[in-house]
Amino acid sequence: MLKGWSSYIRPIVLYNLLRPIGILICKALFRLTVKGLENIPREGRAVIAVNHSSYLDPVVVGAAVPRRIKWVILKSIYHLWWLKWLFVLTEMIPENGAIEKSLSALKNGELLGIFPEGTRSRDGALQAGREGVAILAIKGAVPVIPCAIRGAFEAYPRDALFPKPHPIKILIGSPIKFEPDEEPDEAKLAAAVDKIMSALKSLMEEEI
């Protein structure tokens, strides 16, 4: 049923219709500000790696970045009955089988959004990164753009029922490039993850 609707509603059209609503909400409730937007390429494939502490994260980043972002999201979130229609129609990627689907999206020139920590932080602090982001960067031969969100945890922490007004700032860092490799070993993947997470940590601690 949902897949049938997707043939009538183009994902980019729906995304562009919803984004202005997201911008209005983010400006009104969270006084959203962005630094480093020039680091997002206007076209071409790339991965944007974002720290994760709130359900608001994809919304505020989507409002801040003018390009459509195709997000990789948790399987459990993707299959929520009241949101799945939106994820299907906007072509989000559930985590199961995400690597192949993500690499395919990158080959098509997409901007792919990923949360390297895998799940939301319980205290707002940056968690350890997982190797998925490194696999995409190295096997996909694409730059990784670190993106730190500050204030989303305070606005809507993991255990809260509803968000509350609180300033949110987004800091976007310079793209990180890696040597392409079809079969990267564990050492190469671990080094790439460390580099990406270090860049995110620096952005989260940067003085504004």
| Low-confidence residue ranges | 1-8
Alpha plus pi helix count = 9
Structural class: alpha/beta
CATH architecture: 3-Layer(aba) Sandwich
**CATH C-level label:** Alpha Beta
Q: For the largest beta sheet, what order do the strands appear in spatially?
A: 1-7-6-2-5-3-4
Major sheet size, sense and barrel closure: 7 strands, mixed
The CATH topology annotation reads as Glycerol-3-phosphate (1)-acyltransferase
What's the number of structural domains? 1
List the secondary-structure elements in sequence, H or E: HHEEHEHHEHEHEHEH
Structure in words:
Helix 2 (11-30) crosses helix 3 (57-64) and helix 7 (132-139) crosses helix 9 (186-205). This protein has one domain: Glycerol-3-phosphate (1)-acyltransferase (3-Layer(aba) Sandwich). The radius of gyration is 16 Å and the shape is globular. It has 208 residues and is of the alpha/beta class. The chain has a 7-stranded mixed sheet, sandwiched between helices. It is built from 9 helices and 7 strands. Helix content is 41%, strand content 14%. The longest helix has 20 residues, at 11-30.
How would you describe this structure in keywords?
alpha/beta; Glycerol-3-phosphate (1)-acyltransferase; 208 residues
How would you briefly describe this protein structure?
With 208 residues, this protein is an alpha/beta fold. The chain contains nine helices and seven strands; from the N terminus they run ααββαβααβαβαβαβα.
List the helices and strands and how they pair.
Layout: H1 2-6, H2 11-30, E1 33-35, E2 46-50, H3 57-64, E3 69-73, H4 75-78, H5 84-89, E4 93-94, H6 98-107, E5 111-114, H7 132-139, E6 144-150, H8 152-155, E7 169-172, H9 186-205
Parallel strand pairs: 1-7, 2-5, 2-6, 3-4, 3-5
Antiparallel strand pairs: 6-7
Helix pairs in contact: 2-3, 7-9
